[in-house]
Amino acid sequence: MALGTRSYHGNPLAMHLPLPINSGHFQQWLALWQQTTRDVLGEDLGNHMLDYAKRIARGMQMGMDLLPRGHNTLGIPVFNARPDQPEQAD
Ligand code: HEM
């Protein structure tokens, strides 16, 4: 994705689903990615790579049911998505 080659055809969600990880691990992963891409590519390109990773990480966390209720990738609140669970703040 970073190189724009569209050559990756795997299923990252399936790879990560069985892992014992939570949103904190994703935050840590993104912090390491930010640091590394900035060190290697500089701030502008690094930020670009961080945007990609944030989007993927968010999609993965949604697929793993790790995000607070009432939010989706479009930033549109979904009310009553799971009335049995209390809403969490961001
Ligand atoms: C908590 C954070 C994460 C952990 C602990 C984690 C861990 C792992 C592990 C264990 C694998 C499997 C390696 C293997 O057995 O071949 C893997 C694969 C992979 N991860 Fe992550 N990952 C994390 C977050 C992410 C994020 C945020 C991305 C993308 C931005 C990502 C992209 C990938 C990709 C593309 C693969 C290869 C999947 C494939 O083989 O098709 N991971 N990761």
Describe this structure in words.
- The protein is mainly α.
- 50% of the residues lie in helices and 0% in strands.
- It has helices at 12-16, 23-41, 43-63.
- α2 (23-41) packs antiparallel against α3.
- The mean pLDDT is 85.
- Protoporphyrin IX containing FE binds at residues 10, 12, 15-16, 19, 21, 25-26, 29, 53, 56-57, 60.
Give a short synopsis of this structure.
It is built from three helices and no strands. It is mostly helical.
Q: Which terms summarize this structure?
A:
single chain, about 90 residues, binds protoporphyrin IX containing FE
How are the elements arranged and paired?
Blueprint: H1 12-16, H2 23-41, H3 43-63
Helix pairs in contact: 2-3
The structure holds protoporphyrin IX containing FE.
Residues 10, 12, 15-16, 19, 21, 25-26, 29, 53, 56-57, 60 line the site of protoporphyrin IX containing FE.
